[in-house]
Amino acid sequence: MSDDTDSGLINTLKDWRVALMIILVVFSLVSIYVIPPGISNGMTGNLQLGLDLEGGSWIQLSFQSEVIRFETDEDPEVFAARIGDALDAEVFLFEEDRIEIRAPFTREELELVFEENGGSLVTYEKGVSKDTADQIKLILENKVNNLGTKDARINTITGLNGVTQYIRLELAGVDITTAQEIVGAQGKFEIRIQTIGNESEHVLYGDSIKSVSTPTQSPPGSDVWGVGFTLSESGADAFQNAANTYGATSNPDAHEIMMLLDDETVYSASLNPQLAAELKTTPVRELRATTGAGEEGLEDAKKLEIHLRAGALPVDVEIAGSGTVSATLGEHFKVMSVIAGILALMAVAFTVYYWYREPAIVIPMIGTTVVEVIILLGIAVYIQQLDLASIAGLIAVLGTGIDQLVVITDEVIFEGRVPSQNLYLKRFNRALGIIMVAACTTIIAMLPLAVMDLANLRGFAIITILGVLIGVIITRPAYGKIIMAILSKKPGDH
Amino acid sequence: MKFPTYDISKYTVRQLVALPIALLIVSFLFLGFNTLTTGMPVDPGIDFAGGVAVTIPPTADSQAVVEGYFSGYPLKSVGEGVNGGYYVVFEYMPDDEFLKLSEVINEHYPDAKVDQIGETFGKTLQAQALWALLFSFIGMAIVVFIVFRNFVPSIAVVLSAFSDIVITAALMDVVGITLTLGTTAALLMLIGYSVDSDILLTTRVLKRKGKFSEKMQGAFRTGFTMTSTTISAVALMFIVSWIGQIDVIRDISAVLLLGLFVDLMNTWMLNAGILTGYAGGDKR
């Protein structure tokens, strides 16, 4: 008799799903608490917590710009430049037939201008190109780092068409006023000229810089990179004046032009001979700072562009939405979520016991549910931060999990008895069929939310889908095996 | 076991489907009327309409005091929580005004949770949520048709799920739950819950051998166990989040709870009724 029980247990453990389930539980607990050591974070271990549990602020920005696909018979570069002039706005040709217009215009306004210039507008979308979005992300990251914020997430939200509509900042432990300052704050940009030795004199401030171009090669194709920028008329006068007064036009090498951001030198170079000669007679508005050749030159040019903008974003932004949760309230939500989870589980245990009155069914059922939650959290460590919405998803998936365990139980146990092995397998597979279909529909129903970036609902959907997958592939079949093993050695059955 | 017995063969098909169909029609008209008069089937929360929502943790201030602090702003509603906290909603306001409001909130309730959604962003979210709902529903219907490859039973399942969503949405508006991202997710989740019990019913009744009324009775036992267990879990989630002022979870669980009760009716009257008509009772 005891031999019989032992071999039954071992056979159950040998079932791949039961074995995998045990391995995954260990893996999850290790992920949450052991590697890296997470016990010091308390109950939540290495789980990534969302702002509403941790405290902090979020801001979602939309861009005052459009991405246009157009048609024209001309050279696109020439056409784009003319459109820029006509609109008196900065335009950026980032694909052969797509430009980004960095000022707010309606579709109607643009259609008219495109037509007047011998082209036509094909598509109109609010937002920026991927390149610009990455640049904005970089600028914001710099600002956030300067602030010394420990935990910041900045994500661009890009549609399937490659147009970025929003950028979202999540700053842990920062209140909303500080967060707004980070987005709005600009650095102090200054151009100075070297006088004698280490001495230098002020030439102009960032407000004299009218516009800044993206990195370009000059001459085109030479792989020598730099950033062009345009001075205002008064700025150009001041620049010419300083260059002549301090002798930079006659002896460029001894009088370098320096650029400073927040009093730190970010670029320094001498005037090139042609420019020096030109400045002797007239003010020059279009200037260019060369950074060097190759990959490194390009990287430096990108940084310089950001510096020239003094941390200002290349495109005007608007706050589309924002929010804040205090650390105290976050802590409260955390505790409440744990209580909600535990009580929900107890309610399930109570209800299931009420219907079945059989600990041999209730304990494995609740055990399976707990295991499902642990595995789900373990995997979530790597892919999804937990916020209140995903906790709601967790509890909702716990609900469907129990549903399906009930289906399996009722299917295989007929009038309180476990049938013979063959019949059992047949019924077990039929139950799996039902839960597979139900799982498919739940996943399909949640898929749109997981794909679309509807703020924090993505978390809800991802947790739900993940939970359903873990359930139907591993834990619920494993439950079927376990309950079979337990019930088949019940004394009443022999 | 004190199981509720439900002998479906006592009723005619017409008796079974009358109530769910009537409720579906009434709800549908109600939502349609709302859409015509306000532009939205259910009163939208700030996620879709734009505006500011503030969760104030437990405070000794009375409702009048709270309203007093915010009287200069487009206040939409002030709700008092069971724990002495408040949930304050404002209509959309421009950025400068919101900055001033932020200061007022910070001064009186530094621990509050504040969320602000711009009008245009709200519109974008609204459109996306609508697409999500549509795609989910169509996706679900396709799966159901592929699985059953049988017109009437498939239609019964899809109709029940549709009816779950429509009646629940109408009830939401009646009890004053606004349509937000969270409650939209809950409505989508209902598709999953709804189909769970419907598929159980259909599979048991159509694919098993045996007496129709016995199969129906067996399916009902399992289905009722399932739904009641889920209801108990969701009910506790609702109670805790209500007391704990976790608005997102409270709204999601409230909608799920309403939906699960609606689903009990739709599965065991509407869907069961249609199946009885289709597969015939014992007599036929």
Automatic annotation (TrEMBL), chain A:
UniProt cross-references to SUPFAM superfamilies, sorted A to Z: Multidrug efflux transporter AcrB transmembrane domain
Keywords recorded for this protein, A-Z: Cell membrane, Membrane, Protein transport, Translocation, Transmembrane, Transmembrane helix, Transport
Pfam families, per database record: SecD_SecF_C (PF02355)
Domain of life of the source: Archaea
Keyword Ribonucleoprotein: no
Subcellular location: Cell membrane
Chief subcellular location: membrane
Membrane topology of this protein: Multi-pass membrane protein
GO biological process: one example: intracellular protein transmembrane transport
Annotated transmembrane regions: 16-35, 335-356, 362-383, 431-451, 457-479
Domain Protein export membrane protein SecD/SecF C-terminal intervals: 316-473
GO cellular component: plasma membrane
Family matches, as HAMAP family: SecD_A
Subunit structure: Part of the protein translocation apparatus. Forms a complex with SecF.
Recorded family membership: Belongs to the SecD/SecF family. SecD subfamily.
Function: Involved in protein export.
Protein name: Protein-export membrane protein SecD
From TrEMBL, chain B:
Protein name: Protein-export membrane protein SecF
The entry's keywords: Cell membrane, Membrane, Protein transport, Translocation, Transmembrane, Transmembrane helix, Transport
Signal peptide (from-to): none
Compartments, record wording: Cell membrane
Domain Protein export membrane protein SecD/SecF C-terminal positions: 106-277
GO cellular component: plasma membrane
Membrane topology, as annotated: Multi-pass membrane protein
NCBIfam families with a match to the protein in the record: PRK08578.1-2
Species annotation: Methanogenium marinum
Family: Belongs to the SecD/SecF family. SecF subfamily.
Lineage: Archaea, Methanobacteriati, Methanobacteriota, Stenosarchaea group, Methanomicrobia
